[in-house]
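Quick one:
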Amino acid sequence: MRLVPAYLPACLPACLPACLPAYLPAYLAFSLFRWIYSNGKKTGRLQYFTQKLPSLSFQLSVGLVPTGARFEANTLELHPIYTAENCEKAYQLNWSVSLFGRDQLEIAPSIFDQLKPATESDGVRILEHRHLHADTVQFFVSTRPERSPSDIIRSLKARWQYLIRDSQPKAFRRNYFIASVGEVNSQVLDAYIDRQTVKHPMAAEHIQELFEQLQFYDAQIDLAKVITGNYGQYIYALQIVIENDGGWHESRIDILRKHREMIIQVARKKEWRLSRIGILSNHTHILLGPNMTESPESVALSLMNNLAFAQGMKPVFRFSCYVGGFGVYDRGAIRRQLNQSSAPSE
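Output:
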């Protein structure tokens, strides 16, 4: 009986003992990671294995594997700890939105009664509106955290355009203005977070000094500044608050420094305008300006998962967060403006 296929070189059996020492480590490494991956997929505990083997690596310099190639547990597929499904979100997201018509907008008395339920199905609730000029309408809206500013503009324009499709087939210009609005304006909120270490002091004086050094502030970032995009202008500023799980008070400065640096790195990578980080022992305040296409929910979850990664992919935070908008004006100022005469001016 022929055990070796005829097409293999006759010398191969003699070469196998010499080849095995070189290729065996690569084979064992591949088998180990294949087992970790398949078992993790079946049991839902892939994240557990990546926690247990955070720095495991095999350095191989054999045959077909280039010298210096590394097989690391961290390269396995990582599933986020914090998701939209398992996190509760407290939020207060209001926006002032202005849309502009190509010509004078023909507004029937019932148009907004039809528009409100249509946009609400998109997660955009129209609270108030005002016909500013013949071609300009201002809205005051609230949204769910999964809706980005670009989603809000798309919902308002598309739903309204559908309602007037017969009388004005192309009613709107491409440009727009949208601004996040908070309970207080940006100056008040910034000062509030700046005072957090004074409001919640540590018992030990030297620890208090270290916490004060951990705070982050970039004076060059003005989150109330109007940004001009391709088709419109916007102010998009968020306050995000993340709390430690179980109310845990973290006082290890090396852990808190990693926490701080990870926020800075994520903001830099995603091109967010990071204005301030207020780090306390049991929670963190973050003020930043994301991109128009990013929802408040996605920004908060991205931060939480990256911070968990910095601490070994452990669920160190509560499965909840607060996210709120703010800007140059507070809600009271916007409402007062909208409550003025709604008669269009020429």
